[in-house]
């Protein structure tokens, strides 16, 4: 054997032996982050976890044996990056979409069933409240529905005006602009209903009650003219989809609010985190439903002017949604 | 009742990997988060203005026969940009918007697991009450007269709770982070740096130090010295070399940089040797030698 090793033997060789691995790992991570994981060759795919574990072990060793602060900080940041790429990877978009529609969405909806019942009851109750308030004292109409939104469909309107608002095409703008506007506006409202759930769900109640009361007030304006059924048909064609979506959005918000106010056995943070992710799954679907509702409202309602046909379309949509949320994905167990 | 598991006051959080190694994550400070958001906001406004101009240009050029198509495109574009810019950007491999990328931040799941699409959507839909709700109250306040001023003030104060939420908790969580189970961490890359103890036959190896001279300092001082050597700033080299010479009581005539290099090498060799025997001398006051 040769003479006694120099004092820095361990540290110097430690770095010299491993530095090539670290640089290779860094290169592979750059490739994944800047380009795509698909750019990795088969050898790279085998190398990546091996290099990650080697670097992680080098970090542990370096922490205990080396005093090179820059090297330890480098290894730390390299390991953290590699960790999030290896353990944080997602499924491809196509598979995510498939699982979402096959069971993720309906399961999430079923999981918030209690909130859906509460919000639906509140909505129905506020329709009746709006109707009877305006019925008892027409002055309530202006308080419930802002004049800009009523567009002349108020308590003083003639039967003729009201009838034309139900069966005639809107005067300004094409149908497609109208449909797009309805979709974006309603989606924004439903996102707000969801987000307001964060304040323990209380503002969500207000928002839902306000929308319900507006609908009730509208009925109170139409029913005395014998147009109650007509208004119901006018609303039903898209409303079964749109109102379901808004109720789902409110329920999703309430779900978060409930988890934060009453987290149960878990910590408030953990409960809120689970509820938020479940509610977000519902919300993606809500926006899709509102897209469908916007098309039905913008095109379907203006093109189909027969009450029975309107009811048929609305009813079919409602049964479809109910069947989808109630039945699809029941066999699948596990996380969505 | 005492509160369990209070998070520490610093922004450092440990993440234990499945391999059993604790990685130190550094949470982004509220100021960095706000700056990243402002950058994103500027980008959004710039894109929106550019898109509006483009749509108008297209309308003048070819739009006469399809007047409404452009309105539809613009409405949908605005909707997608407002609600999904953050979501789409954070769904990528880097889990960061352009603003976050510029400030070297990324979003990660608090439990260290995978950042699901649902979590990204949940944290970004919450911006509706964090940003747009306060803005609505401000716009409302600008439009209304004196009677409604108090409504506006109270409304804005309420909305400000959501806006300033990250300042009220130690994890710097936004409302959206809270319900999505995420947090935002610093993701800066570090250079490995030159190997300061590499044997390259420089004059540094010629200098010898006695065990007493090497027992003066500990790990903390060694790593400050490492900083000085890596920065290679002439003034600090002179000052530090003078300070160390005074402390050791040496007066040699070697160049300051060579003196510091060789002292660093000798001290690190000495301290690392002791480290192998399980004795870590943390700083000059630590007598674990």
UniProtKB/TrEMBL annotation, chain A:
Pfam families: SpoIIM. InterPro entries: SpoIIM-like. The keyword DNA-binding does not apply. The chain crosses the membrane at residues 116-134, 189-209, 216-237, 243-261, 281-299, 311-329. It comes from the Bacteria. Keywords: Membrane, Transmembrane, Transmembrane helix. The keyword Transmembrane applies. This is Stage II sporulation protein M. It comes from Stakelama marina. The lineage of its organism: Bacteria, Pseudomonadati, Pseudomonadota, Alphaproteobacteria, Sphingomonadales.
Automatic annotation (TrEMBL), chain B:
GO terms for cellular component: membrane. The keyword Cell inner membrane does not apply. Its main location: membrane. The chain crosses the membrane at residues 41-62, 68-85, 131-147, 153-169. Residues 27-181 form the RDD domain. Pfam families: RDD (PF06271). InterPro entries: RDD. Keywords: Membrane, Transmembrane, Transmembrane helix. It is a multi-pass membrane protein. Coiled coil: none annotated. It is found in: Membrane. The keyword RNA-binding does not apply. This is RDD family protein. It comes from Stakelama marina.
């Amino acid at each position: 054997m040769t003479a006694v090793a120099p004092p820095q033997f361990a540290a110097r060789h430690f770095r010299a032996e491993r530095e090539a691995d670290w640089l290779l790992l860094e290169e592979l991570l750059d490739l994944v982050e800047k380009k795509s994981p698909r750019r990795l060759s088969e050898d790279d795919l085998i190398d990546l976890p091996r290099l990650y574990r080697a670097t992680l072990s080098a970090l542990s060793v370096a922490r205990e044996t080396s005093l090179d602060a820059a090297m330890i900080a480098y290894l730390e940041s390299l390991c953290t990056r590699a960790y999030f790429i290896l353990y944080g990877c997602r499924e491809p978009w196509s598979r995510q979409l498939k699982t979402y529609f096959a069971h993720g969405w309906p399961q999430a909806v079923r999981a918030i069933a209690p909130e859906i019942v509460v919000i639906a009851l509140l909505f129905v109750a506020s329709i009746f409240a709006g109707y009877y308030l305006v019925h008892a004292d027409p002055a309530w109409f202006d308080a419930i529905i802002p004049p800009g939104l009523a567009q002349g469909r108020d308590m003083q309107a003639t039967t003729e005006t009201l009838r034309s608002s139900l069966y005639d095409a809107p005067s300004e703008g094409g149908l497609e602009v109208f449909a797009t506007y309805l979709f974006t506006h309603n989606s924004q409202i439903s996102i707000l209903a969801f987000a307001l759930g964060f304040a323990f769900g209380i503002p969500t109640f207000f928002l839902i009650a306000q929308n319900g009361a507006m609908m009730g007030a509208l009925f109170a304006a139409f029913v005395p003219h014998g147009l109650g059924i007509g208004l119901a048909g006018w609303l039903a064609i898209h409303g079964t989809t749109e109102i379901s979506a808004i109720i789902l959005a409110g329920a999703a918000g309430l779900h978060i609010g409930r988890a934060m106010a009453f987290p149960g056995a878990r910590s408030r943070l953990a409960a809120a985190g689970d509820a938020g992710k479940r509610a977000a799954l519902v919300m993606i679907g809500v926006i899709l439903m509102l897209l469908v509702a916007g098309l039905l409202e913008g095109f379907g309602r203006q093109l189909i002017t027969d009450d029975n046909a309107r009811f048929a379309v609305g009813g079919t949509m409602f049964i479809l949604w109910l069947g989808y949320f109630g039945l699809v994905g029941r066999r699948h167990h596990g996380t969505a | 009742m005492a509160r369990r598991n209070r998070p520490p006051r610093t922004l450092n959080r440990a993440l234990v990997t499945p391999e059993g190694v604790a990685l130190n994550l550094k949470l982004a400070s509220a100021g960095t988060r706000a700056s990243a958001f402002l950058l994103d906001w500027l980008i959004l406004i710039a894109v929106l203005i550019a898109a509006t101009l483009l749509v108008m240009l297209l309308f003048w050029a070819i739009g006469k026969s399809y007047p409404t198509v452009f309105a539809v495109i613009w409405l949908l574009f605005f909707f997608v940009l407002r609600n999904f810019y953050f979501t789409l950007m954070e769904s990528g491999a880097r889990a960061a918007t352009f603003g976050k990328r510029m400030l070297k931040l990324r979003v990660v799941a608090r439990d260290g697991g995978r950042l699901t699409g649902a979590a990204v959507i949940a944290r970004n839909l919450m911006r509706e009450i964090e940003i747009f709700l306060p803005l609505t109250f401000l716009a409302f306040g600008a439009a209304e007269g004196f009677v409604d001023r108090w409504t506006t003030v109270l409304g804005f104060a309420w909305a400000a709770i959501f806006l300033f939420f990250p300042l009220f908790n130690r994890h710097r969580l936004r409302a959206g982070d809270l319900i999505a189970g995420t947090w935002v961490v610093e993701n800066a890359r570090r250079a490995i740096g030159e190997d300061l103890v590499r044997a390259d036959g420089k004059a540094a190896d010629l200098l010898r130090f006695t065990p007493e001279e090497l027992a003066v300092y500990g790990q903390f001082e060694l790593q400050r010295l490492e900083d000085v050597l890596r920065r290679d700033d002439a003034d600090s080299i002179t000052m530090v070399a003078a300070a160390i010479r005074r402390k050791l009581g040496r007066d040699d005539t070697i160049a300051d940089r060579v003196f510091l290099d060789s002292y660093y090498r000798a001290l690190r060799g000495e301290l690392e040797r002791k480290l192998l025997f399980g004795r870590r001398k943390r700083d000059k006051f630590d007598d674990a030698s």
